[in-house]
């Protein structure tokens, strides 16, 4: 305790410079702790989303009291957002549960909407078609996953949902039907955020704990020479680093509280939450208040090892030992793993992410990133030694000799920015993998609706919806459930004209109107086993409610087409002209397929028009996963947030390190200036000391980052394995980082020369 108090007395009683350094350490640590708290709270925010979504989920049963409450849930899309509508027909018997956020179930004609839907009804009146009834109230926060959710409870008559509705038992599921981010994706996001934020954060906190390390080590060495024990010297050093880290942790938690209040109300693209969702948990507070001071103590203890073990060498500024070469094994091990996965793709046998490969790919990415950080001092030392031996330039010689003498300072200066570029490649890989699963490709978007749920008038009105360019029917042949052989002779027919078929495909050849033709997609084997002459029975229902059967034989004539990647046409083997159907008859097992442009605005307009005609009909967007698109939006926001935090941390670490190094080297700069070096030469030296190792690190980050990203994409099993399109963006970002670092290094050589600096201790 005596040594700890001595450290505090030395801190606050040894001049204004030490006090300023202490508060700078605390301020820098607060930025890091704020970012750490934000990363640790993101899973809690997503869990709060899912918990409220699960609590309002209706629990239903196919069998129940005849007078029980009926519910029918429709999860449609409004643009790139999911719009959930729950139709409720109140009954006099059975369960009387009320969902969270409502005081009572809606009566027929009443509609309870979320605040965002309430605003949307004023901004876009066409949405009214989705909500038959009058607005009777707003759903409370307890019944919404997030403030911007599109959700509505619609009261209706029992007769309108009697066919599809189910009897209500209660509200509340043990899990959310559509989580904000599914578990597998959340694991990838956590991994990306850890690489984007936590690794640079550990470096940044280490940098803050080692501000003015050289002068502090000389002071500790003096105390050691005066007779203070090794442990006592370590406690004196801990007084400054640990107290500064603890103060920074407290300030950082306060900064996060303010940031949570602001961001939760303003919102982020694709991600909104209530302030209580982002409240600090006991675990987060404990990690920040205990972990950060512990890291500062560990870094301070390690940095003070030389001062306590060999104080004379510190006081006399002995030449430090070169970095050990063994740290390069981590980088080589990581590159060996990721290059092995890349080699499997080059040989045409890409590895999967099953079994041991799932662990190896993560280990390869982590080892490569950590190895890159730890190898930078060694690489900087090797580069500086070689350039200094071969160059004839005074500027480069001065710069490289200084980097050769202090290779460890390179890690503190450039590591944050190098890690940011490395992690950006991994973030691109995560987004590419998600987009391959959920984002559609092609200019056409199709909408499929069950024909049995539509009246003849609704079918005609849907064909006239603005933006709908094609309307066809997909009908399935009749199957005898008691005859297994009938399953092998089933077929799907597309009822359309040649013009409508052309609108639904990339190109067609051999189409003739008025004739039944065989549909052949050269990129698919659907229907290849069917022989010409095979007959398929189709059932139709007439206006008199009588079923009529008609057999359609597989013709020899065919129409060859190339379809889009996601299209309802891909499952059809017959093209039937509308004139071939019985008059005033409708297929029993069929879907109405509408098509529009895939432009987001056109998709939104088409969905509004469909809802206005058939508000209760279930609409399937062919090839488009709305929940997946929402997940992509959340993941993009989280990764963008991680990139911003990583950028802030990297830039802060760079500025703190460069400024601190410039202050520490004032005596050396003064000595070189007094013997004749010009200020322009010294600025060039300072710039070269930063730019050369930073450029080396960024080149390595680009190469290793793309290899790590490719290994992730290869094991993911997607169509994209080599992200060539992302290289120019990362290269441009790396060049921008180098330019910014060079400009930021120029003002660090002062114009005023103070000779006292060359003899001041």
Please explain how this structure is put together.
The chain contains 22 helices and 19 strands. The chain is of the alpha+beta class and 761 residues long. The chain has a nine-stranded mixed beta sheet with strand order 11-15-12-16-10-9-18-8-19, sandwiched between helices. It has a seven-stranded mixed beta sheet with strand order 1-7-2-3-6-4-5. It has a three-stranded antiparallel beta sheet with strand order 14-13-17, with no helix packed on it. The longest helix has 40 residues, at 16-55. The protein is elongated, with a radius of gyration of 34 Å.
The low-pLDDT segments are: none
Strand fraction band?
5-15%
Care to count the β-strands? 19
Number of helices: 22
Taken from the alpha-carbon principal axes, the silhouette is elongated
Main-sheet strand order equals: 11-15-12-16-10-9-18-8-19
- Sheet with most strands: 9 strands, mixed
Terminal Cα span? 28 Å
Report the mean per-residue pLDDT as an integer: 76
**Integer-rounded radius of gyration:** 34 Å
């Amino acid at each position: 305790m005596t040594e700890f108090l001595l450290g505090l007395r030395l801190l606050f009683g040894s001049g204004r410079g030490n006090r300023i350094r202490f508060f700078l350490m605390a301020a820098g640590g607060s930025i890091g702790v704020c970012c750490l708290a934000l990363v640790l709270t993101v899973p809690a925010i997503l869990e709060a989303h899912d918990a409220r979504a699960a609590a309002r989920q209706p629990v239903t049963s196919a069998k129940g009291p005849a007078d029980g409450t009926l519910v029918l849930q429709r999860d449609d899309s409004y643009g790139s957002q999911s719009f959930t509508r729950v139709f409720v027909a109140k009954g006099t018997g059975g369960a009387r549960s009320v969902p969270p956020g409502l005081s009572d179930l809606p009566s027929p004609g009443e509609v309870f909407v979320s605040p965002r839907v309430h605003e949307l009804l004023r901004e876009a009146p066409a949405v009214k078609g989705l909500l038959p009834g009058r607005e009777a109230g707003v759903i409370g926060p307890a019944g919404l996953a997030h403030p911007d959710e599109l959700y509505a409870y619609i009261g209706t008559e029992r007769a309108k949902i009697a066919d599809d509705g189910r009897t209500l038992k209660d509200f509340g599921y043990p899990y959310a039907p559509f989580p904000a981010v599914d578990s597998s994706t959340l694991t990838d996001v956590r991994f990306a955020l850890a690489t984007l934020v936590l690794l640079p954060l550990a470096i940044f906190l280490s940098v803050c704990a080692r501000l003015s390390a050289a002068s502090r080590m000389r002071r500790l060495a003096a105390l050691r020479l005066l007779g203070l024990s090794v442990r006592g010297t370590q406690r004196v050093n801990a007084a400054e680093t640990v107290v500064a880290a603890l103060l920074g942790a407290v300030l950082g938690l306060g900064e996060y509280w303010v940031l949570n209040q602001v961001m939760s109300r303003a919102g982020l693209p694709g991600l909104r939450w209530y302030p209580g969702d982002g409240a600090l948990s006991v675990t987060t507070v404990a990690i920040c208040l205990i972990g950060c001071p512990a890291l500062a103590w560990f870094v301070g203890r390690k940095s003070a090892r030389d001062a306590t073990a060999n104080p004379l060498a510190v006081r006399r500024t002995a030449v430090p030992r070169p970095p050990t070469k063994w740290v390069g094994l981590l980088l080589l091990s990581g590159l060996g793993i990721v290059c092995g996965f890349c080699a499997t793709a080059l040989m045409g046998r890409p590895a999967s992410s099953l079994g041991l490969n799932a662990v190896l790919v993560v280990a390869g990415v982590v080892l490569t990133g950590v190895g890159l950080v730890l190898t930078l001092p060694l690489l900087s030392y090797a580069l500086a030694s070689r350039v200094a031996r071969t160059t004839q330039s005074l500027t480069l010689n001065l710069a490289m000799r200084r980097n050769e003498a202090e290779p460890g300072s390179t890690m503190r200066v450039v590591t944050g920015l190098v890690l940011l570029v490395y992690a950006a490649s991994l973030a691109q890989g995560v987004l590419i993998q998600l987009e391959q699963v959920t984002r559609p490709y092609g200019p056409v978007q199709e909408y499929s609706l069950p024909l049995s749920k539509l009246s003849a008038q609704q079918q005609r009105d849907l064909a006239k919806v603005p933006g709908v360019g094609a309307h066809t029917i997909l009908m399935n042949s009749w199957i005898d459930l008691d005859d297994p052989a009938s399953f092998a002779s089933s077929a799907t027919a597309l009822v359309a004209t040649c013009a409508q078929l052309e609108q639904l495909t990339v190109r067609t050849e051999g189409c003739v109107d008025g004739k039944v033709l065989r549909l052949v997609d050269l990129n698919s084997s659907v229907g290849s086993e069917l022989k010409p002459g095979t007959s398929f029975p189709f059932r139709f229902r007439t206006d008199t409610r009588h079923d009529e059967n008609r057999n359609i034989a597989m013709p020899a004539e065919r129409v060859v087409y190339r379809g889009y990647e996601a299209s309802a046409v891909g499952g059809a083997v017959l093209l039937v002209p509308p004139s071939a159907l019985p008059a005033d008859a409708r297929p029993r097992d069929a879907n109405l397929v509408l098509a529009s442009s895939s432009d987001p605005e056109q998709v939104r307009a088409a969905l509004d028009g469909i809802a206005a005609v058939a508000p209760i009909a279930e609409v399937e967007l062919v090839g488009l996963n709305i929940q997946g698109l929402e997940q992509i939006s959340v993941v993009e926001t989280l990764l963008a947030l991680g990139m911003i935090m990583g950028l802030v941390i990297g830039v802060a670490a760079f500025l703190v390190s460069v400024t601190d190094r410039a202050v520490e080297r004032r005596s050396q700069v003064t000595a070189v200036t007094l013997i004749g070096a010009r200020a322009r030469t010294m600025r060039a030296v300072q710039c070269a000391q930063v730019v050369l190792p930073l450029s080396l690190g960024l080149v390595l980050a680009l190469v290793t980052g793309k290899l790590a990203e490719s290994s992730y994409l290869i094991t993911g099993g997607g169509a994209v394995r080599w992200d060539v399109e992302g290289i120019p963006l990362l290269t441009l970002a790396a060049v921008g980082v180098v330019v910014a670092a060079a400009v930021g290094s120029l003002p660090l050589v002062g114009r005023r020369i103070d000779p006292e600096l060359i003899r001041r201790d």
